[in-house]
Structure formats: structure tokens, C-alpha cells
Design goal:
Length: about 130
């Protein structure tokens, strides 16, 4: 089960994201077998599991709703950052706009990883 949908990640990347991410063809990462956004989400899930030193992917079905929402928010923001950094100029009105999208998503990631890593929070959201 994926932590988030490609639509959520695309929404967080903003209207200026490269059109390549909307296509079903993987022209960006030809060695990959999947859709580029799904590949970025898989990578985001790996980062979350590694940083938190807990395999949320294996326990996903048993997690409560709040934890799943935090994972969705985090994974979609990580994937969105990767999409924006792929092509800063794409359809953003300026580099500043693309950097703003990155900064907002980075702040979400940092906040959420802090929540997921904190032992007291893990006990509260029943992760252990």
C-alpha cells in the first residue's frame, strides 16, 4: 500500500510542475518500470522508513488513521520536492516561485518526520 496518491504529490508540486510528470509514460526515468510520480513516492516511503527507523510500509494496515495522514502528507511533500527540483523552470512563473513550493514542502517534511521519530509521539499514535 502506497502512503499517498500521485495526485496528492502533483497537487503539492503546484501548477508549474513539468508536464512529464502527468504523462503515463516514464520518459524521465527510462530504467524504471513505473510511472515517474509513483517511483518518487516509493523513494519517499523508503526515506521515511529509514529516517524513522521503523518500517511503516510493513505495518501500514495496522496503523491508525492519524498516522496514515501524517505519512501521506510527508510522502507527498517529499515527492513534490523531487518533481520541482527536476525542472525549476518548467511552468513556474519564476525560480522564486519554485523555491517557495520547495520551502513549504520541506517545512512539512521536517515537521512530520519530527513527529514520526519522537518516541512519545510513536506511543501516542500506536506505532510501536
Amino acid at each position: 500500500m502506497s502512503f499517498c496518491t500521485s495526485g496528492m504529490a502533483l497537487m503539492k508540486a503546484g501548477a508549474g510542475v513539468s508536464e512529464h510528470f502527468y504523462s503515463g509514460m516514464n520518459v524521465l526515468f527510462p530504467m524504471s518500470s513505473g510511472h515517474p510520480v509513483e517511483d518518487l513516492i516509493s523513494g519517499a516511503e523508503s526515506v521515511i522508513n529509514t529516517v524513522c527507523r521503523f518500517n511503516f510500509s510493513d505495518k501500514y494496515a495496522t496503523l491508525n488513521g492519524q498516522t496514515k495522514l501524517i505519512l501521506e502528507d510527508t510522502a507527498s511533500s517529499i515527492a513534490a520536492i523531487s518533481m520541482v527540483t527536476h525542472d525549476f523552470s518548467a511552468n513556474y512563473t519564476s525560480r522564486v516561485e519554485s523555491e517557495d513550493v520547495i520551502n513549504v514542502n520541506r517545512d512539512i517534511v521536517l515537521r512530520n518526520l519530527g513527529i514520526l521519530r519522537d518516541k512519545k509521539q510513536q506511543d501516542f499514535i500506536n506505532v510501536t
